[in-house]
Amino acid sequence: MSEAVREVVVTSAEEAVAAVEGGADRLEPASDMEADGMSPSPSEFVRTREAVPVPVRVMVRDEGGSQVADLDELCATAAVLRRAGAGAFVLGFLTPDGALDLPAVRAVLDSIPGCGWSFHRALDQARDRAAVRRALDGLPGPDTVLSAGGVTGVAAGLRTLPAEADRRGEPGYTMNVMAGGGLAVEHVPLQRARGVRAFHVGTSVRRRGWDSPVGPAAVHRGLHHVDTGSKRAG
Fold it and tell me: How many CB atoms lie within 10 A of CB 8?
């Protein structure tokens, strides 16, 4: 990822169009954001993909959140989204004691062979961040870790994310760092200056949280400090 990325969470094709109008160059289609995000319906994913020219990474998660509630059903959902045209995904699962749930991650990946993917903010809930990162290194396809640097959000992880970006290339740190989870306008310049090259927003580009739609002007305000250049990452 030689250029920076501006990613916006969207819950509909209409939000996708608004996000791209505001400057997003990658989207994360999801549903039920009040529950911290679940997989979108295949039909809404198709509408979203057809509505915009930018890459999308589709959320794969059920009501279990970072701990899978029904692995068979989740794998079936991922496979349906893949058949519907999804080529990249967002996922991340932990065991009850906060370790990487390798069997769950591998099972989902087996349902979407050959696809790129981002490890979701489950990293922020892990018992040992470094151990999870090392375990991810041996899996096929991960190129991004979406993280706030801590459980409570980016404001508390301002030092963690640049420190991890500085270690890029080391074992466990081969993936790009994407800052997200309460990301605010004032967080972007510092993170960008310290080597973070990907940014993810959701509530900050809506007037009243998840109950309101994405606004193009809010997307522009939230991410205008990010220099994306001309290259878009998938």
Answer: 29
Q: In sequence order, which residues have a C-beta less than 8 Å from that of residue 222 and are 6 or more positions away?
A: 183, 184, 185, 188, 201, 204, 205
* Structural domains of the chain ordered from first start: 5-223 (3.20.20.380)
pLDDT band at 150 (very low <50, low <70, confident <90, very high): confident
Token match 């999801």: residue? 30
Q: What is the dihedral of CA 211, 215, 217, 223, to 10 degrees?
A: 80
- Three-state SS letters, 91-152: ECCECCCCCECHHHHHHHHHHCCCCEEEECHHHHHCCCHHHHHHHHCCCCCEEEEEECCCCC
Which residue in 24, 30, 22 sits closest to 8, CA to CA? 24
**CA dist 70 to 65, 74, 75, 98, Å?**
11, 6, 9, 18
Selected residue with higher pLDDT from 231 and 177 = 177
The phi-psi region of residue 56 (left if phi > 0; otherwise alpha if psi is between -120 and 50; otherwise beta) is beta
Of 230, 201, 226, nearest to 15 (Cα)? 201
65-88 average pLDDT score: 96
